[in-house]
Structure formats: C-alpha cells, structure tokens
Sequence to fold (304 residues):
Amino acid sequence: MSEKIEVVVKNIQHGEGPHWDDTTQCLYYVDYFVNDVHRYNAVTGDDSRLNLGDSSVSIIIPRQKGGFVVSQKTDLAFLDSWDSGKVTSIAKVEADANMINDGKVDASGRLWFGSCVCGKDIHEPEDWPKHQGSLYSLDADGSVKKHISNISISNGMDWTDDNSVMYYIDSIPRQVWAFDFDITAGTISNQRTVADFSSTEIQDMGYADGMAIDTEGKLWMTCFNAGKVVRIDPETGTVMRTVKFPCEKITSCCFGGADFTDLYVTSSQYLMTPAQVEKTPLAGSIFKVTGLGVRGRKANTFSG
Ligand code: CA
Fold:
C-alpha cells in the first residue's frame, strides 16, 4: 500500500485544528496566531478565510444548533455563522497568560479541550513553561469542567468506537495517555501511558501533537518538529507505519473525504526564518494523504 501526499492549501502561518464536515465535504481548520478560520471545500478546491479578530483561535467545530463553537485565546465562543462572522464569548476559561489549544467533540456531543501557556513568541517546544495548562470539557448546557491540571501543552485527543477509552496527548512530556472513559458522566479515570515519544521504542518522532483514530482502533499522530505522521498501536505502544512530509512542523490531522479514507494534515511555518521557509517552501501547507488503506469515521458536532 503506497500513499500519495498532495498539497491542497499553501502558506498558512500555523495550521491547526482540522475538522472534516461530511455534510458539506469541507475541511474547517484554523490559522492559530493570526486568528483566522478557514473552510476548504474539497469538491471545488476553494479555500475561504474568515478573520475573527485579534485573539488566537485553535478550535472551529460546527454546532448542532447552527454556527460553530470556536476558541478565542482564553475564551470559548460561538461563531454565529460563516457569513456573519459574529463571535460571542460564552465562557472565559483560562488565565490571561494562557491559551486554549486543541479540542474535539465526543460521541455525546460534549466538547473536550485543553490549554497551555500562550506560546506566541516561543520558538521551540522545549522552551515552553511546564504544567500551566489543563484539560476541560464543555457540556451542552454551557458548564465547563476541569478534568486534569499540570498539563504542559494540551493537544490531540480521540476515543475508541465503543467509547470505553479516551486517548490524549501532552506534547511536552511527549506522552500519549489512555483513560477509562464514561461517556454518560463525561468523566475520565485510570490514566496510563500508551505511547512514549521520549522512549527508545519511538525514536526521532519529535513531539506528538494532533491525533485521529482509525476504524481499526490505531492512532494516527502528527510529529511536530519531525516532519512525520505515525500510526501507533495503543496496545503495544509501537510504531506501525510512518509517513514523511516535506516540512518539519506537522501539527494535526483528521480523516475526511467521501468515505473517510483521506487523511488531512495541517502544518506550520510560524516563527520560521525566511531562510528556513526557503529551504522547506511547503511549510504551512494543508496536505491530503490518499491511499493509506485505512479509514476514519465521521467527526462529532457540538450539541450545545
Ligand atoms: Ca495541536
């Protein structure tokens, strides 16, 4: 099985937060530090951009009631519609020095998201202040719950098909954890490591960043600063497959396409020098990987 990597959008500063909308065959994603949300239409090939002001946006996920839930640095907010561009804060979640990072909706329609120190001027992950972030969830009624403190860079997450396990990444200790997941209560417990990017079993993979689970229960993870996406078996913690990209700062991924067999991958050129960008001109592209021979599943939308 050989895969093919295509560039679908170029010159994003810091692409992140991909969400595939199967009803419109569009990929929503963010350009984090310039506070743009994007909508890439896979049918027409058009990419449209909407600026949400001067905060950092890491999440754009459709609401079942219409519009979108988005993040605005320390706040969660609703984007009324793509056409209006009107943003209304619904909760200030974090301290001013922090920012909300990756988020995803579970099968019950609850939004999970985490945080970290605002890294707008931090060049390398190893310079990031540690243990200042948390993992939260937002219920349909607007209530926010904190689940874990002392997170360094809260990042990708996903759930098994039977909703018994939640996987979650903290990028700085380079850990991928599993938790027992109670979808009704919206709680997690029994934390354990399923993949350790600082161990000898997983070498030269940089920092685990975004995550998407496939229908076989294997984890696809983007390797920031390593230019790769890996497929990892959470039962053994070992790398099953590696896909190499033409730039280093690979940030996140999600499955999409008519049958969920394409993997969309975001990347960054944020804080790269002009010389570095010249060396890797595709940094900051949105990629589509086809021919992987696996499939993902429909993304959930926020029930509130
Ligand atoms: Ca991320």
About this structure: The helical segments are 274-279. The mean pLDDT is 96. DSSP finds one helix and 24 strands in the chain.
